[in-house]
Amino acid sequence: MTSIIEKRVSLHKRLGEHQQQNNALKSQIAQLQALANIGTVTHMIAHEINNLLTPLANYAALALNNPDDKSLVEKALEKTVQSCERASKIMESMLAMADGERQEKKNARLIALVEEIFTCLCRDFAKDGITVKIRIPEDLTVWAVPVQIQQVLMNLIFNARDAMLPRGGILSVKARESSDAVQIEVADTGCGIEPGDLKNIFESFFTTKTDGKRPSEHSGSGLGLAFCKKIVDAHGGCISVESKPAEGSTFAITLPKPQ
Ligand SMILES: Nc1ncnc2c1ncn2[C@@H]1O[C@H](COP(=O)(O)OP(=O)(O)OP(=O)(O)O)[C@@H](O)[C@H]1O
Ligand SMILES: [Mg+2]
Fold first, then answer.
1. What distance in angstroms lies between residue 131's CA and the mean position of ligand 1's atoms?
2. Which pLDDT score, from 0 to 100, does residue 125 have?
3. Domain containing 160 — which CATH number?
4. Which residue, by CA, sits nearest to atom 17 of ligand 1?
5. Domain containing 62: what range?
6. Is the CB of 206 within 6 Å of ligand 1?
7. 3-class SS shares of the chain: helix, strand, coil, % to 5
8. Is residue 29 part of a domain?
C-alpha cells in the first residue's frame, strides 16, 4: 500500500518536473521564433534595398561613362534622389512592420505607383529585349500602404524579368476594379513554373535560382514572393498564380476596397 502511495507521489513529482521543463522549452521556442523573425526581416530589408539599388547603380554607371551627356547625368541624379527617398520609406515601413506597428493606408493612384517603379527600370527592360505593357485606368485607386504595394509589384516585376531572360518577351501590368475589390495582374511570357513547384513558391527561402541556373548574375534568396504574400495578406487581400512551363506566368492580386 505504502509503496503504491510512494510511487504515485514520485510520479506526481516527475510529472511536475516534466511540466516545468516543457514550459521552459516552450518559452525557449518562442524566443527562437522571435530571433528567426528578426533574421527574416533583416534578409527582407536587404532584399528590398538591393532591388532598388541595382537599377540605380546601372544608371549611375551609365552617367559616369557619358559625363558629357548633360541630360543623362541630370536624369541619373534625379533618379538617385527619388530612389534614396524610396529607400528611406522602405526602411521605415519594414522596421514598422517588424515592430508589429499598423501602418497608415491611404487611397493611392495605382498608375502613379507603377510609373514610379518603372522610371528607374525602363532602360534595363529595353536592354533585355522585354516590352513593357501597362494597362491601368488613370483614375483607379487602391486602399493601401503605397510603398508596400510598390515593393510587392517590384518583386513580381523582377521575377517576371528573370523568367524572360535571356530571350526577352512581354511583361504586362494590368488592373481593373469591381464593386468591392481591385484586381492587379503582372504577367510574363517567360519560362513558367513547374507544376510541382507551384505549392512552394510563396514559402520563405524557396528558390530555383541557384548559382548558374539564373541568367542574371545573382542567385535568388527566395524571399520575394513570401514578402509579397505577407504584405497582401496584411492588406486583407490575396495573391495567386497561374503558370504554364515554357509559356509564362500570371500573378493576380486582389485588394479589397474600404467598406
Ligand atoms: N514570373 C515567374 N516565372 C517563373 N518562375 C517564377 C516567377 N516568379 C517566381 N517564380 C519561381 O518562384 C521562386 C520564388 O520566387 P521569389 O521571388 O520568392 O524568390 P527568387 O526570385 O528565387 O529570389 P529573390 O526574390 O530573393 O531574388 C523563384 O525562384 C522561381 O522558381
Ligand atoms: Mg524574386
1. 20
2. 87
3. 3.30.565.10
4. 224
5. 35-256
6. yes
7. 55, 20, 25
8. no
Q: Tell me the residue length of the chain.
A: 259
For ligand 1, say whether the CB of 54 is within 6 Å of any of its atoms: no
Distance CA(112)–CA(109), nearest Å, equals 6
Residues 55-113: tens digit of each pLDDT: 888 889 999 999 999 999 998 999 889 888 888 888 887 777 767 677 889 999 999 99
Torsion sign (Cα): 4, 8, 9, 14 = positive
224 Cβ below 6 A of ligand 1: yes
Q: Is 222 in the pocket of ligand 1 (CB under 6 A)?
A: yes
Question: From the CB of 193, is ligand 1 less than 6 Å away?
Answer: yes
The residue contributing the CA closest to ligand 1 atom 8 is 159
| Ligand 2 mean position, distance from CA 11 (Å) | 54
pLDDT tens digit string along 153-191?
Answer: 989 999 999 999 999 999 999 999 999 999 999 999 999
20 in any annotated domain: no
Let me know if residue 213 belongs to a domain.
yes
**Number of domains composing the chain:** 1
Q: Which atom of ligand 1 is nearest to the CA of 197?
A: 31
Give, for ligand 1, the residue of 188, 198, 209, 210 to mutate: max count of ligand atoms closer than 8 Å to Cβ. 209
Cβ(167)–Cβ(129) below 8 Å? yes
Shortest CA distance to 156 belongs to which of 223, 222, 225?
225
Cα–Cα distance for residue pair 63/8, rounded to 1 Å? 82
- Confirm whether 17 is domain-assigned: no
Residue 226 has pLDDT above 70, yes or no: yes
